[in-house]
Structures are given as structure tokens and as C-alpha cells.
Amino acid sequence: MNSESNGQKRFFIQTLGCKVNKYESQAMRELLLKAGFKESLAKEIADIYIVNTCTVTHHADRESRYLIRLFHRMNTRAKIIVTGCYIENDVDNVSFLPGVWRIVKNNEKNRIADILNDIPLPGPLSLNPNPLTITDFKNHSKAFVKIQDGCENHCSYCRIPLVRGGLKSKPLNNILEEVKTLADKGFREMILTGICLGAWGEDLSATAIAREVGLNGFSLVDVLKTLNEIGGDFRIRLSSIEPKHVTDELIDFISGNKRICRHLHIPLQSGDDEVLKRMNRPYTANEYKILIEKVRSRIGGIAITTDVLVGFPGESDINFKNTVNFIKEILPARTHIFTFSKRPGTAAYNMEGEIKNDILKKRYHELNIAALGASYLYRSKFLNENLDVLVETKRDKHSGLLTGYSDNYIKVLFEGPDILMKKIAPIRIEDVNLARTLGLYEG
Hints:
By secondary structure, the protein is of the alpha/beta class. It has four domains: about 120 residues, Rossmann fold (3-Layer(aba) Sandwich), CATH 3.40.50; about 120 residues, Transcription Regulator spoIIAA, CATH 3.30.750; about 120 residues, Transcription Regulator spoIIAA (2-Layer Sandwich), CATH 3.30.750.200; about 55 residues, CATH 2.40.50. The protein contains 14 helices and 17 strands. A five-stranded parallel beta sheet has the order 2-1-3-4-5, with helices on both faces. It has a five-stranded mixed beta barrel with strand order 13-14-15-17-16. α7 packs across α9 and α13 packs parallel to α14. The protein starts with a helix and ends with a strand. The N terminus is likely disordered.
């Protein structure tokens, strides 16, 4: 593949959804640039549009279709390639949309350049795995590093196991080389991500691969230990991790290692045991609470962030109140709230007791108030303290201030020069309110 074969075609990638999708978009971007394609600086003039879709909610499905139609109206001559989770089980809903040239499955993303050059795919995918990899992360101060794919949890509301398949762990040596490259590029934070991050290693052979890397068993801690041996000034953050994977071994390693960010995103989904059971979540609210208490007792100042699903079928007022009260009790540093969305193929799709939209909106608002209060109480603990903040590459669009995140996931705004961007700066926390945290650069 070269510039002659593709005629210096200009591509534009639009990404929806999670960190894994963002990683895979970056990997496709690098493959296309290496093959001689040119990235379009303006979406209006692209020859090729790649829409990397999401299907977590029906809103994500709808946004994917909207973008496809938008790009076709914008440039009727362009080729539109649709990839990502939405098309895994919904090819018929997408392939006949105007402008769609090709559907690319998730496990074909590593062949995006060949596909765009109309080169036949050489045999079964299993014979040519070539896992996606990255060497950079465009327009970011931190890099997402995908180390795992697939999920086998089968929560009753979630479609992701249907579209991402079983567990697939990236080999440890591959992760090591990728992080080394990104560290050499100057990235100061690596965010390890996956569809079910904590399950890394469960699918790896305990024979050949274990001999290769000198391990007898596999867990996420093995990844952290290996990356901790890399030289350079960077920190490591974990993305979402299920409660069952927050082990004593993991807690102890984080508590004894300053390179690992004091932040765990542990999905809750509901603070009511009845709803948790119908969701097929393998814990009770009290078991979750005990876990959070243990983490906090062993890792000082750690941020616990979480996900909560509002309006699961049959969720009563009492069920919902239990969730609100639970959030007020455990006080997460941040709570991502989303409303139930019927996903075809999931166990919850045909469950009775659908919650009306007006009730959903009311519950969302009430829970959000509790979440904002919890966040304020957490952030207030750090008033007049110094935190190391990784400064983003863009200023806050409303205030014009520099902005970035501390290792314990507090977003801080402060005055400072552009030269601080992509660097870790010592910031003193000066003011905290419900909406934001303000700091003072003391460099």
C-alpha cells in the first residue's frame, strides 16, 4: 500500500463510545497514515468517512445513523465505512443507508488499509490476527492503552458481550512495548483499558505464554508490575474495573506504588439488592460497600468513581430511593448516571415494568443532585493541599483557564502558561464548589 494505490485519499474518523473505541480509532488512523492515506483536517472535504460506532444505548445507535446520513449529505461522492459495536448485530440497519460503502467488523479493523485499497482479505481472520497497536494518541495529553477485549459477565441489560465476544487478552510483551513507545513520545499518563479490564489474563494459556514471560499465573497486577519496571516519568491509571476484580493483591499493589493513580472506577449500577439481582450483578449493595471501605482504608485519598443505571424495568420508588441513599452513603468522587435502554438480545429486553419517561427524567435529576453533593464532599477534602495535575492540551472553553486531572481524578482549573500542557504540574487547591475545582499553579 502506498500513496499511488490510494491516490492520497483523505480520511476522517468519527468515534463514538468508550475508551476502547477511541484506542481502536487511533490504531486505524496510524494504519492508514502508514499506508499512504492522508488525514483530512476538515470533515467537509474528506474522501472517506470512517464511523466507529457504539451500541451501549439506543441513543448511541441513533447517533451512529445520524452521523452516517450527515456525512453523506456533506459529501455525496465520499465512501462511508461503518465499524464498531453497532454493526456487529445490526448490519441490515446500516448497510443500506445512503453512502455506506463497507461494513467493517471489529476484528477487521486491523485490515482497514487493505479494505480501503480493495485488497482481498487473505483467508480466515484467525490465521491473521495482527492485534491493533498504537505509537501515539492524537490531540491527547494521555494515552489509552487497550490491553483486553471481550466480556463474559452477561449483565441482563448489556449488549456488549453479544458484540465483543469472549475474553481476549493482549500478550504482556505487546503491552510492554506499546507503553514504552508511548512513554518515549512523552505521554505522562497511560490509561489501561478494556471491555472487562480486570479479566486480563484469564484466557491466556498457562503453558507457552507463561514460559515466555516467566509467570505461573496471570492477573492485572502482573501487567502493572511489568509496566512499573519501565523507566521514564509517567503514571498509570486503570479504567473501569468490576468489583470482583478489585482483589486484595490489586489493592495492595496500588497502595504501595506511587506510579499507579489513586483512582478506581468500580461500576455499581444500583444500590438496591432486588434490582441488582435482576440485573445479574454478582454482589449485594452491602458487599459493594464493604469493598469500597476496604479500598479506602488501604489507599489514602483514593477516588472511587462509579456508574449507576436508572429506570431498570420494575424499579420501584423504594428501589430507586435505596440507590439514592446508597450514593449519599458511599460518596463517590464522580457518578456516571445513565437511563435504562432496551437492547435487543439482552435478558432485560422483554422484562415487564418499563419506567415512563417523565419518571426517568425526575429520577435522573434527583440522583444527579446526590451525585454532585457526593463529589463536592470528596473534593473539599483536598482544599489547601497540593495535587499533581496532568495538564490537558486545550484550555477550558468557558473560562479560558488551563485544566487537567490530578492522580485522584479531580478536574482542576487554574491560571498558567501554555508551556505546562502535557506536563504534570503541582497545583494547590484554592476553591471547591458544586460545579468545579479551582487551583493555583505554584511552579
